[in-house]
């Protein structure tokens, strides 16, 4: 049974059918008439006569069409969904791994009709009840009036990526704690700053992925303190003007340590280390940046760092009451700090205090 006749074959059938129709008419060999009509019909419709007359394709014919459309010897699950959102075909692997899937919408939320009409594509990750993770790629076809979904198992790849991310987190937190421990800060400080930074990033409108990046990178904000002499870093009293100038170099040192990395976390950490002491009015250091010229990562970490430093006890000071902390932020709104971020901190203060309670010194 011929299905989906090519353009070339359609032209040949139409011409041949026309010749046979002419022969049957002029020679009275009437047997050519039905044969000519059938060839013309198949050439114009690209359909098998039986299929066209009944407007229906047998299951075997459908499967032949679908299988011929798919890559050969594919051991991964494959589905084909028709324009009515019904499962029209699935290979053995799909039936074994996804026995419950019977519609396109069970896998995707995209518009099926639009994907078919525009021959578009979409992709997503899908986790089965057994914990296996698959990469799903859907591709529409006007020829089939259907959409094919190809599934590739990526469970091991996802697990490996998570392991790499966890390792990076551990290294970042450890390095952050090294920087803080030299100035007698606590490991909980870098964890609170990380949590504050993520929350503030989300509140400011950054997406979850970028907020997670800031969370991972912000513990490195003071890594440059490893380059500050102990006589200055651990001085119990107030620093004099010259000592403070040396202390200020920790921002540039931190940036220089990580600026050549191509890893997203370390690139973000370099930006944060270099800009978390910049001030909204341009009076900060090391570059004297102002306003939106300060990277949002630096502005966010600046608020998180000061909020935690003021609200936490240190060997050289007691924790400030939260009312006094917020008074300072309102006084420095638009001076030291991004005014929008101060508003977000004020409006969501209870969420920030919950993080402080979660990681006490």
TrEMBL record:
<keyword id="KW-0812">Transmembrane</keyword>
<dbReference type="InterPro" id="IPR021309">
    <property type="entry name" value="YgaP-like_TM"/>
</dbReference>
<keyword id="KW-1133">Transmembrane helix</keyword>
<dbReference type="GO" id="GO:0008081">
    <property type="term" value="F:phosphoric diester hydrolase activity"/>
</dbReference>
<feature type="domain" description="HD-GYP">
    <location>
        <begin position="164"/>
        <end position="361"/>
    </location>
</feature>
<dbReference type="Pfam" id="PF13487">
    <property type="entry name" value="HD_5"/>
</dbReference>
<dbReference type="InterPro" id="IPR037522">
    <property type="entry name" value="HD_GYP_dom"/>
</dbReference>
<dbReference type="Pfam" id="PF11127">
    <property type="entry name" value="YgaP-like_TM"/>
</dbReference>
<feature type="transmembrane region" description="Helical">
    <location>
        <begin position="12"/>
        <end position="40"/>
    </location>
</feature>
<dbReference type="InterPro" id="IPR003607">
    <property type="entry name" value="HD/PDEase_dom"/>
</dbReference>
<protein>
    <submittedName>
        <fullName>HD domain-containing protein</fullName>
    </submittedName>
</protein>
<keyword id="KW-0472">Membrane</keyword>
<dbReference type="InterPro" id="IPR006674">
    <property type="entry name" value="HD_domain"/>
</dbReference>
<dbReference type="InterPro" id="IPR052020">
    <property type="entry name" value="Cyclic_di-GMP/3'3'-cGAMP_PDE"/>
</dbReference>
<feature type="domain" description="HD">
    <location>
        <begin position="186"/>
        <end position="310"/>
    </location>
</feature>
